[in-house]
Amino acid sequence: MAMSREKRKLDHIRLALSSPPGGGSDFDDLQFVHRSLPETNLEDCCLNTQIGGLALSSPVFINAMTGGAAAAKEINQRLAEAARETGVALAVGSQRAALINPELVDTYRIVRKVNPHGIIIANLGAGASVDDAQRAIEMVEANLLQLHLNVPQELVMPEGDRHFKGMLAAIQAVVERVSTPVIVKEVGFGMCRETYTQLKGIGVSIVDVGGRGGTNFVTIENRRRGKGEYEYLTDWGQSTAVSLLEAKGLTGVDLISSGGIRHPLDMAKSLALGAKAVGVAGPILRILTQQGVQGVIEAIGSWHEQLRTIMTLVGTESVEGLTSVPLVVTGKTKQWCEARGIDIRGLAHGR
Ligand SMILES: Cc1cc2nc3c(=O)[nH]c(=O)nc-3n(C[C@H](O)[C@H](O)[C@H](O)COP(=O)(O)O)c2cc1C
Asked: Which of 5, 9, 12 to mutate to test the pocket of ligand 1 (most atoms within 8 A of CB)?
């Protein structure tokens, strides 16, 4: 069991790297309105934001990927170096492996060792007990805990879970009793208004929409199966843009955007749709593999500069201000919004 879990982690890394980068996150259906007189200065644009009352110097963060194997420890160490040098938050991959086998604790704890003062996010599946969740937090001295939802992945995975009753109650218990704020995140299948209502109803106040369009765990598990039986589920779920739009009007929940974020324009559109932070996983792993830690540091630095550029262009100097910038929704995403009764006319006027 332990070996197969370790092999699965390494398969995920290998298959994520060898799958084509996403492109179906629907951000191309969203367009900012160009303003010839923005009345902004680039040096006045500020990237400060906060999630769950925690101040972040940048909305960009490195989303959950790995741990639980020697190769994964090295990746975590290098991601933590990049996070430390750029001041971004970093989530570790699911810590289940280390809860089962304490010898693997170091493969996660390394991120705290490398980055003692940074924002670290712990990670477990959403069925976790309160006790396990608290142990995961303490393992990396986390500032936040992510609970991930990945039902399609489990179902396509031959050895995956088949029992999903009681998950909401399990999440509620963790949210009420652990020592940090909790983020409930999807892993790339997106969310909808109904899910937000369920989560808000049990007291969840931070949600990562984890939309479709980037790393695709149906594709990855299909390739692990070898037979590709579930290929028709490749497009399952809501894209990241649609998932953010589904949250329109939702109050009292800090939204995080992730899944198929390609560049700073996708980040800016996410923030305009109300996200307070933007997570990137697969693309950072790719940069790390091809260009090393320095490449990741340079990429994140450049994303920060480009985000400020876009803010200057659209006439706002704060992350919060982006939510008042007009954004026009077109194409299939517009059709989705019309069918679901989401007010895109207001968005086109910055409301
Ligand atoms: C190799 C790999 C491993 C991952 N493992 C986890 C995990 O253990 N827990 C989790 O919540 N998400 C995991 N994810 C999902 C990411 O956090 C993210 O939700 C997803 O990859 C979509 O973002 P992206 O398109 O930027 O990659 C993993 C992603 C990758 C690429």
From this structure: 12
